[in-house]
Predict the structure.
Amino acid sequence: MLNTLTPVLGGSLDLDHLSPKSLARVSGRTSGGYSVYRPMTAATAVAQAPSMKLESLDHVAISVRDVARSAAWYCEVLGLDRLHEDAWGSNPAVVGAGGTGLALFPVEGAGQPPPGHDVLTMRHVAFRVNSAGFEAAQAELRARGVPFTFEDHAISRSIYVHDPDGHRIELTTYDRR
């Protein structure tokens, strides 16, 4: 018997004769059969808009060498609050502001430095501040001797700092005052 796709495609497709690249697009068994990945065009995306509605970014999980040290740095230097400590303790230690958090997990093994721009990875985490907060952040970082860089992105201004593990953290404001 041939290994075929039928319900979703409306015909049959012999899976035994697909190239490895085509086979990789088969996403698995669904209740009605198999589904196949098909790239969407802009027109298809509008016509097939998902019914789900995301509320906001909840958290980003990052690995750190020393959870306690990192949690203290994010709270003391960036002014984030400890979240969910009563439920989870320090694994992960969650810090955040305004409904968005960072979940700090202990790295497994020795840990490698963050990769460069030639690797598919998250490049930085950005927190939004207002104009007054942006100026205060720069003053606070200078007072603490924490190095940072400034970039003007035309629609926003940002400063970038590295946490104790080398993760790049952005503080940005869209206030152009």
About this structure: The two ends are 70 Å apart (CA to CA). The chain has two domains: 4-47, 59-173.
